[in-house]
Design goal:
3 helices; 91 residues
């Protein structure tokens, strides 16, 4: 019971910190791709044209972040499964 209370307290502290920071700043959550695009535009004076365009672009940054997180979770699940399988077969 004591462990669950500690975990709950930690989650509450991080949630409160996240809500405070996100409500008091005007920061947009952008990735390195957006920054790189700006630098390329600056270096080439706007003459650069990409080689390929995406087949589908998510409707918002939040959806894009969700899909990226799901991709990470799926990859971690596969890697964890194979590490567990390897450990079980060794031992």
């Amino acid at each position: 019971m004591k462990g669950e209370l500690i975990v709950l307290a930690i989650i509450l502290v991080f949630t409160a910190q996240f809500l405070y920071v996100s409500s008091n700043t005007d920061a947009e959550f952008g990735g390195a791709d957006g920054e790189a695009e700006g630098v390329i535009e600056e270096i080439t004076d706007g003459k650069y044209e990409p080689i390929a365009e995406p087949l589908w672009e998510p409707p918002s940054g939040e959806i894009e972040s969700l899909l990226f997180g799901l991709q990470i979770a799926f990859g971690a699940l596969i890697i964890g499964y194979f590490f567990g399988y390897y450990q079980k077969s060794r031992g």
